[in-house]
């Protein structure tokens, strides 16, 4: 298992936030887009397993670090043991809560030497992102951004063909809407948590109404043209379990 060495650990608020965002995106992917693979890897017959999110966006289910004490705070131990004794949705929610706790512990481990203002700024940046639990359970973040999102969705709920006819399609934002940077300034990707940028393709889920990078949910602009109603990975897996 790859371990971040102390010598190369992030030191500034921005570096720690980037590290947090990468680890968070990896865990969100494990519990949504890659949830079936994650579920299979968490075999209750195996030893104590942990879910790690790495800064580069990769996730890993493996045994805990052997170093005592470990170089970084460790995630929840033995997440695999409860898998078959709980409802799948409840188990994933439990893993999500433990993952949120781990992500914060790693971030504040790196920032332990910060002063009060720096810690406050770090937490404020982290708090702008939905928690893993909120993403996995489809809960809305505590901060209400409905004003921004509703305006964006109403404006982009249809795409126009060359003859001016509207096409009822999934809500998308692509390179053609560069003038809407300010309107989307607080829109966050439901997978990686990064802010909207006009030079990237985005698509909105028609069920939970969250926005996503096309690359994060593996949807291209061409593929989106043929989707009448788009469901994000979380909503798709939720419907599949009902």
From TrEMBL:
GO biological processes: chromatin organization; regulation of DNA-templated transcription
Keyword flag RNA-binding: no
Subcellular location: Nucleus
InterPro entries per UniProt: Alfin, Alfin_N, PHD_AL_plant, Zinc_finger_PHD-type_CS, Znf_FYVE_PHD, Znf_PHD, Znf_PHD-finger, Znf_RING/FYVE/PHD
Entry keywords, A to Z: Chromatin regulator, Metal-binding, Nucleus, Transcription, Transcription regulation, Zinc, Zinc-finger
A single cellular component GO annotation: nucleus
Boundaries of every PHD-type domain copy: 186-238
Pfam families membership: Alfin (PF12165), PHD (PF00628)
Top-rank taxon, per record: Eukaryota
Annotated region described as Disordered, given as residue ranges: 140-184
Predominant cellular place of this UniProt entry's protein: nucleus
A GO MF label: zinc ion binding
Comment, domains: The PHD-type zinc finger mediates the binding to H3K4me3.
Complexes and interactors: Interacts with H3K4me3 and to a lesser extent with H3K4me2.
Function summary: Histone-binding component that specifically recognizes H3 tails trimethylated on 'Lys-4' (H3K4me3), which mark transcription start sites of virtually all active genes.
Family: Belongs to the Alfin family.
Protein name: PHD finger protein ALFIN-LIKE
